[in-house]
Amino acid sequence: RPRAQFAIPAPPPSRKLPHVLSRQEVERLLALTEDHRDRALLTTTYAAGLRVSEVVGLQVAHLDSERMLIRIEQGKGRTDRYALLSDRLLAELRDYWRVFRPAPWLFPTTPGRHEDHVSRRTASRIFHRAKARAGITKRGGIHSLRHAFATHAVERGENLHAVPCLLGHRHIETTTRYLHLAPHALAR
Fold first, then answer.
1. Is 76 a catalytic residue?
2. Average model confidence (pLDDT) for the chain?
């Protein structure tokens, strides 16, 4: 007789909520970055809610100051989308551009030499150095700036249908976890 086979289903993966930085922690982190490029990179990550791979791959041509949008090309899932370009972020990026004149990459490896963009690992190191300088002990990497952006948007009362579009989420269920991270939104 053939041997009987039993399919034992795997347990569902555990879902842990990320540690979210407060607005004060984000401000302290951005204020204590080492140099202008690093501050611009971290500010862009937070203010637009970008993934690290999206922020390091930005080009100057992707910034549309007339429409106040940032074009994200080939983000997660090889999809293009737009993120918001706030007035404050635009002012930060203009100050940065006046000093370094980056082209075509917004964040080149070495200021003055524009052949390649910074790596994801370098962006992560920049974040961890700024986090240590700011005295932040919460766990999490550079992606926690994206979580903070989404949580703060929900806390401000942003339209819950607009947040997934800004983050590039395909399903609203992915975005609804930020309701658990924003206690003020639950109280409404």
1. yes
2. 86
